[in-house]
Design brief:
Elements: H1 4-22, E1 33-39, E2 45-55, E3 60-68, E4 76-87, E5 92-99, E6 104-112, E7 115-122, E8 125-135, E9 138-147, E10 150-162
Antiparallel strand pairs: 1-2, 1-10, 2-3, 3-4, 4-5, 5-6, 6-7, 7-8, 8-9, 9-10
Length: 174
Amino acid sequence: MKQYIPILTLLFVQIVHGQKSDLAIFEHLIGKTWIAEGNWEDGSKFKQESTFEYALNKQIVIARSKGYVNQEQTRYGLRNHGIRKFDPVSKGVKFWEFDVFGSLTEGTMSIRGKDIFYHYSYNGSLITDHWEYVDDTTYNFIVGRYVDEKWEQVYLKTQFKAQHHYHNFLKKED
């Protein structure tokens, strides 16, 4: 039995290390508030503040976002609560995003370098959100139809900028 302990320890360390690296793309997003403003293709306003944190021993990433919480875009507050998790079956990252309107958006993620792509169905169309890495405090953010590594249609293009640590994020809503 003693001869198996080093092997089991090494195997355990490799498993834990592998699980952490599956969500490693979020490492520099953690502990910051990411803020973006812009306009959708139809002219309506877009404003969002997002934070990311690890949970369950880094097995998942929790995303919380503030945004407009009514259709008229006159009230701003906590809008979305999301989960990102490595799926051992597909060997990819999946996500679930719950919003104040009672909707659930779920899909898959792909990673290219430091770029993050969210792929999901919305109103019958396949949509992609692209967090295009610029530097550790800036991402270009593009939402649209992305097919064969090119944009067929862009609905929103703006930037997320990192702000202060997110400890003030859950304070009084604007």
